[in-house]
Amino acid sequence: MRSVLTIARRELSTYFVSPLAYLILAVFVLVIGLSFCLNLIAFANECLVYGSNPYFQQQLNVNEQVVRPLFGGFVPVFLLILFPAITMRLIPEEKRQGTAELILTSPITSTQIVLGKYLGALVVSLIMLASSLTFVGVLTRVSQPDLKSVASLYVGVFLLGAAFLAIGLCLSAFTDNQVLAYVLGVGALLVLWFLSGISKSNSLNETIGERATQFISNLSVIEHFPDFTKGVVDTQHVVYYLSVIVLSLFVAQRVVDSHRWR
Amino acid sequence: MIEVQDLQKTYGDRVALGGISFRVEKGEILGFLGPNGAGKTTTMRILTGFIPPTSGSAVVAGFDVMQHPREVKRRIGYLPEHPPLYKEMTVQSYLAFVARIKGVPGKTIRPSVASALERCGLTEVAGRLIQNLSKGYQQRVGIAQAIVHSPEVMVLDEPTVGLDPRQILKIRNLIRSFRGEKTVILSTHIIPEVEKLCDRVAIINEGRIVALDTQARLATGLQPSERISVQFAPGAESMKARLEILEGVQAVIPEDGASHRFLVEARTGSGISRRVFERAVEERWLLVEVTSVQPSLEEVFLRLTGEEKGVVA
After folding, report:
1. What number is the ipTM of this complex?
2. Closest approach of chain A CAs to the CA of B11, in angstroms?
3. What is the rounded distance in angstroms from the CA atom of residue B179 to the CA atom of residue B146?
4. pLDDT at residue B86, as a whole number
5. B277 interfaces chain A, CB cutoff of 8 Å
6. 3-class secondary structure per residue, chain B
7. CB distance from B128 to chain A under 8 Å?
């Protein structure tokens, strides 16, 4: 465990020595802040116009109109584009710098190496998520959002991000080129994302059967996300994301280990 | 301390190591000498557990490299050909990181790092980023990284490559200071380095050890003939002919174009220098100097790895 933390700490400090982590954080805060402002102003206007009408008042819901569109619509896309940038250097950089020779001739296991690196990336994503808590803070001052569903939203975004990072780390283990690692990461996530559309295709439903298409779209990374935005933390979705993480890290560990035995 | 038995490594059809065996005793410095691509780095990578051998065994500090890799790795300090540096870190934090992953207990990390810094002359640059250091300093950080966990065995792959003469001198002094205390294997293709640093030399060529001995014995053992250089005082006449008739002499070669300095080659074991002395006394030659000529390690190396290698090996 100590070795895992040592590796994770070094990774984390590397992120904050280079501009990469700051850049990702800045873009995230900027875009989410803008979108939050616009949603909030729009919501406030609606409240002013319709607030006096008891019928419409029922329809006004700060969770539905400010929080959910923010995290539901834009954040997964953001993660898809930027998280592979967090993971792309994790393993290729070691090979390029020759430090792989140091790490692999040290008395630590490849599992510890992979877990350490993953943990480092995960902490970056947590810092990023934490920075958006300011907006929730602002919201609680001006309104009464349902904090339980906000919490479920955060759990969902965290799990989605954690799965993206695991997939990115896994793919970065296959190459010693960072650009390639990034493209592989985004590409794989896009494919996994669009699997969700398969069950909506009628012709496919007819040819291979609805159960098959349903199964395939259940493999999609995004298919399991919307329930979290509705304030529901469903075990099957949690299990899905955890499985993706474990599987990806397992493959990454095998690939790193195979460097020893070539 | 290190015992290697019939180590082989093949990459597909290409044979990188064709079965090498050697022993290194505790406190000894063994030099690997060989042309590029001879198998020096491959051997070192196997010893440090970076790659596995195809067959054969290697035991380091009593532990088999294949069976107990973690025990071996704890006891080896390794400087690869390109020092494995995280250039965005400071020297101090880098060494602390290495100490941690090498398993140095938490309490002793600080003193371990401090002593590695001091020993490698890095104390003044401890707080600087590695990327801002000169190549010589970076190489020293590489060596500090290899000693920070006080290993019993050190494996140094071309520790002085690409440095200027002053830096080379400093690194050599550093390595020399390990003699007797740590067991060191170092590889190089610079011959004077081996002559200056190593107790024994292994000459490696095309994946095999073609010679392994102390430098002096390597040189004499490979000498096909006994050679001495003889110098007479000016004025001595027709000395060449007089030397040629001595028993066992195979050739007399005038040196420097002067007529009173010769290289005498004689049959091994013919005691040529004694004969020259005796004759000089008898005939009152004006002898100025008689020196025995050792072939240099360079000659040995070239002979063993060059075109004639088939003859000797």
Report:
1. 0.85
2. 9
3. 15
4. 93
5. no
6. CEEEEEEEEEECCEEEEEEEEEEECCCCEEEEECCCCCCHHHHHHHHCCCCCCCEEEEEECCEECCCCHHHHHHHEEEECCCCCCCCCCEHHHHHHHHHHHCCCCHHHHHHHHHHHHHHCCCHHHCCCEHHHCCHHHHHHHHHHHHHCCCCCEEEEECCCCCCCHHHHHHHHHHHHCCCCCCEEEEEECCHHHHHHHCCEEEEEECCEEEEEEEHHHHHHHCCCCEEEEEEECCCCCCHHHHHHCCCCEEEEEECCCCCCEEEEEECCCCCHHHHHHHHHHHHCCCEEEEEECCCCHHHHHHHHHCCCHHHHC
7. no
CA distance linking residue B100 with residue B108, whole number of Å: 10
Half-sphere exposure of B191 (CA within 13 A, CB side): 10
What pLDDT score does A20 carry?
84
Nearest by Cα to A167 from A67, A240, A73, A93: A240
Residues of B with Cβ-Cβ distance to A104 under 8 angstroms = 49-50
**CB–CB contact A106 B73 (8 Å):** yes
Helix (H) or strand (E) holding A138: helix A133-142
Question: Any CB–CB contact under 8 A between B61 and chain A?
Answer: no
- Enumerate the residues of chain A whose CB falls inside 8 A of the CB of residue B86: 10, 14, 97, 99
**Amino acid present at B279:** R
Q: What is the dihedral of CA B39, B86, B138, B43, to 10 degrees?
A: -10
Which element (helix H / strand E) includes A221? Answer: none
Q: At what angle do helices A147-172 and A178-194 cross, to 10 degrees?
A: 130
| Top-confidence range, A70-84, B172-186, B232-246, B298-312 | B172-186
